[in-house]
Write a sequence for this structure.
């Protein structure tokens, strides 16, 4: 048992050190190759940019010699447009100029190309492949990479042509003919054709082997899409509806030549097969080595873009779920844009010196949602709840000081919601202001409805002596929901109502809503467009069959909703929307609590940051010179 | 010894089945049940659209079957031993299963006197010299046709359910839905007259006829597809043993919340967790064991008491708080700003060389970049582990110090150093071995919190999500993996015991 250093030990040590040295040398050699690789990559990148610049110069040269193309520069001279593609003479045609920036960064003095903009998501997107991916993060990526025939103007929120240069819409609402822009092309240089539009609808969205059912099941109003010629399509509708136009022009146009090289199961299981005609493209489009959740999503500028090219060299997205970590990452400059929590927003934006490095923006836009308490207006398990009486619902609203709630529970950043549509949506009735806080009037209304404290025990009873007691359902988790519940219980007790909180797991909500098994429930709706179709939530046909009118409210709203859907004219439709809003405000089927603004911290390393009713336009940002 | 190991391994199979079954059933019984989150994800939709979407999801993942059937189906797929028609493999490596039968429509008696039978399958045979490409195309074309027919069946069923539900609602029929809001067909069937006399009967009848007709179409297309499938357009998976029994690689299925194969999700997540633990474990051992030894040798000294108190203090400090504090103070540029906040790589890591470079200023390189990024998570993972291990070492050493053989060794003049290292420490190793094998599975679970705080996409996060979202495939695969690791660790501990301690034998 002597510890002597023998020949065997010597050989062992020799072998180990040899292995170490060899692996070190191998790593060194690998690094050398890597560096060479990088240099070559850089060179190819600059050559690609050069080619793209030459290409666009060539193309614009041709346009000038053609001189009949709408370039937007000489707007006062009458433009002669080729109308041979139209379907029916006499039906008005809507023409659209080339899309431009809302705030053009190219006019700024310190405008410079380049720079990567990094945004941090607060939840991990699962996949990015269009239509199959459903979450809001995938949509944010999709909006940079993919384009549809039309989109909403970021300031006016009016529908305008994007890939579509013009369209002709049947006054009766049965067909739509769309002319696709001549110069529109995908990020690999292939032109966007009518066949791509047809294919995207019929063989992608409506392919039963693809997991696209969320969109497929709501696009039932489109009967078919026909190719007329290379750049013209006809879209036919099964029945006229105010939302047809938005639906027909709103889906992403995907390149057939790219997607048809994959089998359906390859697309179903893909994480990031995203290719389109947008201003950015996915840096890595290799189907064998796709992006996976947990790594950064990297977009680079589409050098072949047919519209106004962004200044940014690219965008990068990562995910941080923890609130403190997210904010720290922003402060450290590791990310350029985060969505802060309400307390973080309040604390940081008032901190001295914060504004030197960050834009703190808070604004209401078309996607701002609202939070509410829904009252069960119909029967629960065959029995009517107290809330079937309009006066009781009004009293419940009057009894809640929503300004106080917003200040104390949600850090004071939100607005009191006024109805199913809130500013800046044109569908909100500007004449309606929120119900005031007035407990006395609430009591009076309750008494009028027959709820009086008859036995003097502090709780209201109806004429049969049944006490006013109801169950308030909320999702578990989250301090704000708990504080709101406490406030509600307190306020109810103050006017003699017993409120019993019921806390359930979020995954149960669907079941509770479907079976209408609640007295009062709190929830939020988010909007996806300036005028969401009200029939999903409010129409009485959504009472039957577990639709989303889970509060079973039926007060003659159908006449407005049906009229809204049938009215193709925007202004007239808005007028009906306002009448509908008046009815909802009077009836109070929901107590509208707060309408929630978007909040962002954006780094001042970037310029030209504006907020729009449509959201943010990162493609306008640039990293100023100096 | 070998027979013992084989016996233990065979026993693991029923144990694994038992564990996964229990876990699955508990989740399935929980309110909402399997796949509840899928339905919530729908957002605002018209009732009909939502119903159609739900019908598609139920059809694809078999969510409308009873939980026990769902479990058995999973078990059949995950077992390497297969019964019945063998799967085939398409060129992309995808398993092609024998086509699913269309479901018999409910209440068909209302609309047709007899339900159409499956047509006699016509044996389909490819030309002997047919190219693979044409075979595959033939199969895919028919597969698409069948998918269309099946989609027609699903939509028709959803539409009929809608009409029935609406009418039953108008007529105030009681109890026609179960607690999950699904239509109970037996209740509806009993009240047939109610529907036939209603105004919407025409629409119901029409929808029913469509359903029955679509069912017939689906049957025909299924038979056609089955014929082509049986002609084997693709090579068969695995190899056959006897008749319908074959051996093939286990299939963990697809996660329906992430709609990706579970195996790929685990392939992404597992290496990260293993890396964290492989770095963390040696750190714990290299600090805790020497400290424990020193504490035992100098039992009762200031060092013993201080280190003991210090480790216990660390052990009692909650990890989530430590993580947030570390981020807030060590990572934030407003304070120290020493470490990155989240993730495993720098944004520019793809362009880094592997080793650090000094030419033109210092650049970390890929290797050092990872170390820098995992420093805080590892720190949080490690600090709570010292106490248990060092206390265990100390106790085991103290036990041995009082043994007769130690006194003998001292008496015969063995140096103090040798007594400690060659005698006492060696014999104290026994409990440390078992500790190692039981710590490893515990750490797999323990890194959940750390992965959450530092946004590291590892196994802990994946498992937690699968429970929250009630994702059947992901949950079962994770449960199986964690329990398999645990069982293997227990076996390994027993085997190591036998090697370390001659008194133990498994004869």
């Amino acid at each position: 048992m002597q510890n002597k250093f023998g020949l065997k030990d010597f050989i062992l040590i020799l072998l180990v050190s040899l292995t170490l040295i060899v692996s070190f040398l191998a790593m060194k050699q690998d690094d050398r190759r890597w560096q060479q690789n990088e240099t070559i990559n850089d060179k190819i990148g600059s050559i690609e940019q050069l080619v793209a610049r030459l290409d666009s110069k060539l193309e614009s040269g041709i346009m000038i010699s053609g001189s009949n193309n709408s370039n937007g520069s000489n707007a006062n001279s009458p433009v002669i447009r080729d109308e041979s593609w139209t379907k029916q003479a006499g039906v008005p045609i809507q023409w659209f100029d080339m899309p431009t920036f809302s705030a053009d960064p190219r006019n700024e003095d310190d405008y410079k190309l380049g720079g990567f903009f990094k945004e941090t998501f607060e939840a991990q997107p699962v996949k990015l492949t269009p239509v199959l991916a459903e979450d809001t993060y995938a949509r944010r990526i999709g909006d940079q990479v993919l384009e549809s025939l039309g989109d909403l103007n970021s300031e006016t929120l009016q529908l305008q042509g994007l890939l579509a240069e013009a369209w002709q819409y049947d006054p009766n609402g049965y067909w739509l003919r769309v002319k696709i822009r001549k110069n529109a092309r995908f990020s690999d240089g292939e032109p966007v054709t009518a066949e791509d539009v047809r294919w995207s609808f019929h063989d992608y969205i409506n392919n039963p082997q693809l997991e696209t059912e969320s969109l497929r099941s709501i696009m039932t109003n489109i009967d078919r899409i026909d190719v007329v010629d290379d750049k013209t399509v006809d879209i036919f509708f099964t029945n006229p509806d105010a939302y047809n136009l938005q639906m027909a022009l709103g889906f992403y146009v995907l390149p057939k030549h790219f997607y048809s090289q994959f089998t359906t199961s390859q697309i179903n299981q893909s994480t990031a097969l995203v290719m389109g005609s947008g201003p950015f493209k996915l840096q890595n489009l290799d189907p064998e080595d796709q992006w996976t959740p947990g790594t950064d999503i990297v977009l680079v500028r589409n050098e072949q873009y047919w519209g106004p090219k962004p200044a940014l060299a690219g965008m990068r997205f990562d995910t941080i779920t923890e609130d403190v970590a997210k904010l720290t990452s922003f402060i450290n400059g590791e990310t350029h844009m985060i969505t802060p929590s309400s307390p973080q927003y309040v604390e940081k934006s008032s901190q001295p010196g914060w504004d030197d490095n960050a834009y703190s923006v808070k604004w209401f836009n078309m996607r701002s949602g609202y939070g509410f308490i829904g009252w069960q207006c119909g029967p629960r398990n065959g029995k009517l709840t107290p809330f079937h009486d309009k006066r009781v619902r009004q009293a419940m609203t009057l009894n809640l000081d929503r300004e106080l709630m917003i200040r104390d529970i949600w850090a004071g950043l939100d607005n009191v919601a006024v109805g199913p549509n809130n500013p800046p949506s044109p569908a909100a009735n500007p004449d309606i202001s929120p119900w005031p806080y007035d407990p006395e009037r609430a009591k009076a209304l309750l008494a009028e409805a027959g709820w009086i404290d008859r036995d003097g025990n502090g709780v209201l009873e109806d004429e049969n002596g049944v006490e006013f007691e109801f169950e308030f359902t909320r999702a578990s988790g989250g301090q704000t929901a708990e504080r709101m519940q406490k406030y509600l219980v307190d306020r109810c007790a103050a006017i003699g109502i017993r409120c019993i909180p019921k806390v359930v797991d979020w995954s149960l909500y669907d079941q509770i809503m479907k079976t209408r098994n609640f007295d009062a429930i709190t929830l939020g709706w988010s909007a996806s467009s300036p005028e969401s179709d009200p029939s999903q939530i409010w129409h009485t046909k959504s009472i039957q069959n577990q639709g989303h009118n889970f509060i079973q409210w039926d007060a003659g709203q159908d006449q407005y909703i049906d009229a809204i859907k049938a009215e193709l004219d925007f202004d007239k439709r808005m007028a009906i929307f306002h009448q509908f809003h008046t009815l909802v405000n009077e009836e109070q089927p929901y107590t509208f609590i707060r309408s929630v603004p978007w909040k962002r911290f954006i780094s001042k390393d970037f310029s030209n940051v504006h907020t729009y009713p449509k959201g943010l336009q990162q493609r306008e940002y640039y990293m100023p010179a100096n | 010894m070998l027979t013992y190991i084989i016996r233990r391994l065979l026993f693991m199979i029923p144990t694994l089945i038992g564990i996964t079954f229990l876990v699955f059933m508990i989740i399935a019984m929980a309110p909402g049940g399997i796949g509840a989150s899928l339905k919530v994800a729908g957002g605002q939709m018209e009732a009909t659209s939502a119903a159609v979407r739900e019908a598609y999801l139920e059809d694809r993942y078999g969510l409308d079957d009873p939980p026990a059937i769902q479990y058995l189906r999973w078990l059949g797929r995950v077992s390497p031993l297969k019964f019945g028609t063998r799967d085939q493999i398409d060129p992309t490596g995808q398993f092609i299963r024998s086509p699913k039968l269309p479901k018999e429509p409910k209440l068909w008696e209302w609309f047709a006197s007899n339900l159409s039978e499956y047509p006699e399958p016509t044996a389909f045979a490819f030309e002997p010299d047919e190219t693979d490409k044409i075979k595959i195309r033939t199969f895919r074309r028919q597969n698409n046709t069948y998918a269309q027919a099946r989609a027609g069946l699903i939509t028709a069923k959803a539409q009929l359910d809608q009409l029935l539900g609406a009418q039953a609602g108008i007529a105030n029929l009681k109890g026609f839905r179960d607690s999950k809001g699904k239509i109970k067909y037996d209740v509806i069937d009993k009240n047939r007259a109610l529907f036939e006399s209603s105004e919407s009967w025409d629409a119901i009848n029409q929808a029913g006829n469509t359903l029955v007709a679509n069912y017939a179409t689906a049957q025909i297309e299924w038979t056609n597809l089955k014929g082509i499938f049986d002609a084997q357009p693709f090579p068969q998976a695995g190899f056959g043993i006897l008749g319908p029994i074959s051996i093939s690689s286990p299939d963990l299925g697809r996660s329906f919340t992430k709609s990706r194969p579970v195996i790929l999700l685990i392939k992404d997540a597992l290496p990260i967790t293993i890396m964290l633990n492989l770095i963390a474990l040696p750190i714990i051992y290299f600090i805790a064991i020497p400290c424990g030894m020193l504490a035992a040798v100098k039992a009762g000294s200031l060092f013993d008491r201080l280190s003991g108190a210090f480790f216990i203090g660390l052990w009692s400090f909650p990890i989530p708080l430590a993580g947030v504090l570390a981020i807030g103070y060590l990572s934030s540029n407003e304070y120290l700003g020493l470490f990155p906040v989240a993730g495993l790589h720098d944004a520019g890591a793809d362009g880094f060389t592997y080793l650090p470079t000094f030419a033109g200023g210092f650049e970390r390189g890929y290797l050092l970049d990872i170390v820098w990024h995992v420093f805080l998570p590892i720190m949080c993972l490690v600090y709570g582990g010292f106490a248990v291990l060092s206390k265990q070492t100390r106790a085991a050493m103290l036990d041995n110090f009082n043994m007769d053989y130690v006194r003998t060794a001292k008496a015969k003049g063995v140096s103090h150093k040798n007594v400690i290292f060659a005698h006492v420490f060696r014999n104290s190793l026994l409990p440390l071995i078992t500790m190692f094998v039981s710590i490893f599975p515990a750490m797999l679970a323990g890194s959940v919190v750390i992965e959450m705080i530092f946004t590291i996409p590892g196994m802990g996060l994946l498992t937690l999500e699968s429970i929250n979202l009630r994702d059947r495939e992901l949950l079962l695969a994770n449960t199986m993996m964690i329990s398999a690791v645990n069982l293997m660790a227990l076996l390994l501990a027993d085997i190591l015991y036998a090697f370390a301690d001659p008194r133990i034998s498994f004869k």
Q: What stands out?
A: Chain A touches chain B through 74 residues (CB under 8 Å).
